[in-house]
């Protein structure tokens, strides 16, 4: 039996041979391809796209972001990181369909639009931390009427929130310093400068 390095080289040669045969088949001109016209010095080539397929192995490595793809080596595209959340007001404004349930005790269930408004929060961990403003009552700044804090946990339960309300409250208490503010701090006023 050949040592592992020789086996790898043999497999690599077989893969190159297979790829070369595939590329040669793709590069053969068809019967309908343009005929070369050496009379005017210009040789017309059939428009063939030369591409080398990846080796049949799983794409374990991420594709390099600023470089062209390396032939034969499969890679997976890494999605760009989501933009950093610096303030929570824009994302929390999406929860305004829940305002009636959070402020009016006569509303027995949140509307479907309210529960659907939670879906974008699950996709981004930074936006999910903005929901801590819901559990600590800061969302009351956005509501048209005073917040009924006793309606927060029933809202999370009714909307099948993916984290248990008591666990989420504990997480929010632990991450208190990392939760983005409701609004960006206003810049300091410019002082009058005398020249």
UniProtKB/TrEMBL annotation:
CDD domains per record: AAI_LTSS
InterPro entries documented for this protein: Bifun_inhib/LTP/seed_sf, Bifunc_inhib/LTP/seed_store, LTSS
Gene3D superfamilies reported for this sequence: Plant lipid-transfer and hydrophobic proteins
Signal peptide: 1-22
Superkingdom as given in the UniProt entry: Eukaryota
Pfam families: LTP_2 (PF14368)
Positions of the Bifunctional inhibitor/plant lipid transfer protein/seed storage helical domain: 77-165
Record keywords: Disulfide bond, Glycoprotein, Signal
Residues in coiled coil: none
Keyword Phosphoprotein attributed: no
Family: Belongs to the plant LTP family.
Protein name from the UniProt record: Bifunctional inhibitor/plant lipid transfer protein/seed storage helical domain-containing protein
């Amino acid at each position: 039996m050949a040592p592992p390095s020789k086996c790898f080289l043999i497999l690599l040669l077989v893969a190159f041979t297979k790829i070369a045969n595939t590329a040669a088949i793709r590069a053969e001109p068809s019967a309908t391809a343009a005929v070369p016209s050496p009379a005017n010095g210009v040789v017309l080539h059939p428009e063939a796209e030369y591409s080398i397929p990846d080796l049949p192995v799983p794409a374990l490595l991420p594709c390099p972001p600023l470089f062209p793809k390396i032939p034969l080596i499969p890679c997976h595209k890494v999605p760009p990181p989501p933009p950093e959340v610096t303030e929570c007001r824009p994302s929390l404004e999406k929860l305004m369909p829940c305002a009636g349930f959070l402020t009016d005790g006569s509303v027995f269930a949140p509307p479907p639009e309210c529960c659907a408004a939670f879906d974008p929060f699950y996709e981004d961990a930074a936006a999910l931390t903005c929901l801590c403003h819901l559990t600590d009552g800061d969302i009351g700044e956005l509501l048209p009427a005073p917040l009924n804090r006793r309606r927060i946990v029933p809202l999370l339960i009714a909307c099948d929130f993916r984290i248990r309300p008591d666990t989420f409250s504990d997480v929010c208490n632990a991450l208190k310093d990392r939760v983005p503010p409701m609004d960006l701090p206003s810049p300091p006023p410019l002082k009058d400068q005398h020249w």
